[in-house]
Amino acid sequence: MEGYVAAIDQGTTSTRCMIFDRGGAVASLAQHEHRQIYPRPGWVEHDPIEIWENTKSVIQASLAKFGATRQSIVAVGITNQRETTVVWDRRTGMPYLNAIVWQDTRTKEICDQLALEGGQGRFRPLVGLPLSTYPSGPKIKWLLENHQNLRQAAEQGLALFGNIDTWLIWWLTGGPDGGSHVTDVSNASRTMLMNLETLDWDDEILAILGIPRIMLPRVVPSSDPQTWGSTRLDGPFAAKIPVCGDLGDQQAALVGQTCFSPGEAKNTYGTGCFMLLNTGSQPVQSKRGLLTTLAYRIGNESAVYALEGSIAITGALIQWLRDNLGLIEKSSDVEALARSVDDNGGIYFVPAFSGLFAPYWRSDARGAIVGLTRFVNKGHFARAALEAAAYQTREILDAMKSDSGVELKALKVDGGMVYNELLMQFQADILDIPVVRPRVSETTALGAAYTAGLAVGFWDNTDDLRRNWQVDKTWHPAMERIKRDNLYKGWLKAVERTFDWVE
Q: For a pLDDT cut of 70, what percent of the chain falls above it?
């Protein structure tokens, strides 16, 4: 089959459309940022309509840059910021409220109340997730309880829920005019509502949370030969192009990194930081604060599971240095500023802005900078901010080793921060294993393209995809063990200082 595959990568801060050829190379890219809305401390929102308008814009822009015709695009895949929750009117397509973003902490009281019976791990055996402000389920419950008449609309089937993947697929395939209301297994596993064994919504949990099943999308494979409909946009995408690939962003990066065998892992450095370890066809329950999640499902094949370590703030910390403190003009300036000093000056920066995710799951934690002296300058701030991403990754990797018994030989990395040479070398040093960046580092969008392309036969199988993966650069550890151990010991001490801040 000739042609190209398009991927829509809807992330926490921006939306991109990327077009890939058969070799997995990027043929065209367009990107547009959207607003971050902070109505109250701990609340984070996005405007779903703005995201949809940006999506249409980047589709047209990427095709215009490439000069592609609509006939040359054989399939469309979606990848998205997970857990971010939208509820909208099926008749008009208008959201009832802004989207509640995955970082948002407004559901803490709901989670605390649910934990009174059975504790924080009450639903974990069924869904693989602890009770926390992270998943979509408590967000839906909050919306139903805090918007007048929404519950009645939901029970009547007039209000639809979706994460951003569902929202975009619904609009791409017709919106109010017969749009397909679906989500794939990877995104469904992030709601705290999907049973890991049945791969469908769990009626017992729905009843406990008071969520009408009728408002939820149909759960489908990540790569679906049946497709969910075809594009109905004006302009270059006016042709009926199959929409048939869907993955949450971190699972998409796992696929883009071709981690198809149990024991293979990747780490994505974006707004947050997310490490996934393929555990094969059986879910592995974590004893160390990791999440058990669906990695992907290709057609009618068995679902593949993963252990995940989720870190809320990594790249967002660099944005905070830029936007809130004005220490740098653009995010890429952070490396030069960090290189202006030899080390972190004795300080640690724990970015628990919205609590701590894995392996702690402490919504009572808040950010802290510890070890300050008069010696410290803005270069040390920059260096400590970068090092925070590496330390948090070390914590996740240690937990994965304990849960899985797998000793990683190397870590595949992707995301915007992997071009920061200082961070990547420090990451290899603090992990004491090689860190490997692929030639195509846009692995999240590539994973979405792969799922769509597999569904229509553009690629025959995962062996085709493995042949596309090539190494760009490898960083090898060069730090002495005593120094590594002392630095990490200081980090763990700093993390403890952030606990119990919110009472």
A: 97
Q: Provide the pairing of β-strand 73-80 with 243-248.
A: parallel
- The residues, any chain, with a CB within 8 Å of residue 273's CB and separated by 6 or more, are 267, 311, 314, 315, 389, 392, 393, 415
Please state, in angstroms and rounded to a whole number, the distance separating the CA atoms of residues 343 and 337: 12
363-398: buried (b, 16+ CB within 10 Å) or exposed (e) per residue?
bbbbbbbbbeeeebebbbbbbbbbbbbbbbbbbbbe
What is the separation of C-alpha 110 from the centre of its chain, rounded to a whole number of angstroms?
23
Which residue has 């948090």 as its token pair? 392
Q: What is the pLDDT of residues 121-165, one digit of tens each?
A: 899 999 999 898 989 999 999 999 999 899 999 999 999 999 999
Q: Strands 471-475 and 368-370: what pairing? A: unpaired
Q: Which residues contact 434 (CB under 8 A, 6 or more apart)?
A: 409, 410, 411, 428, 474, 475, 476, 477
User: Are 19 and 63 in contact, with CB atoms under 8 Å apart?
Assistant: yes
Which pTM value belongs to this model?
0.86
Question: Does an H or E element contain 159, and which?
Answer: strand 159-163
Cβ-contact 433, 409 below 8 angstroms: yes
pLDDT number for residue 44: 94
Per the document, the length of the chain is: 503
Closest CA to 245 of 431, 16, 9, 22: 9
Strands 159-163 and 85-89: antiparallel
Tokens matching residue 333: 């300036």
Per the CB < 8 A criterion, the answer to whether 266 and 259 are in contact is yes
H/E element, 33: strand 26-33
Q: What is the pLDDT of residues 238-282, one digit of tens each?
A: 668 899 999 999 999 999 999 998 888 899 898 888 899 999 998
Tokens of 187: 């995104």
By CB atoms closer than 10 A (0-12, 13-18, 19+), residue 490 is middle
CA distances, 129 to each of 21, 192, 221, 294 (Å): 36, 6, 20, 11
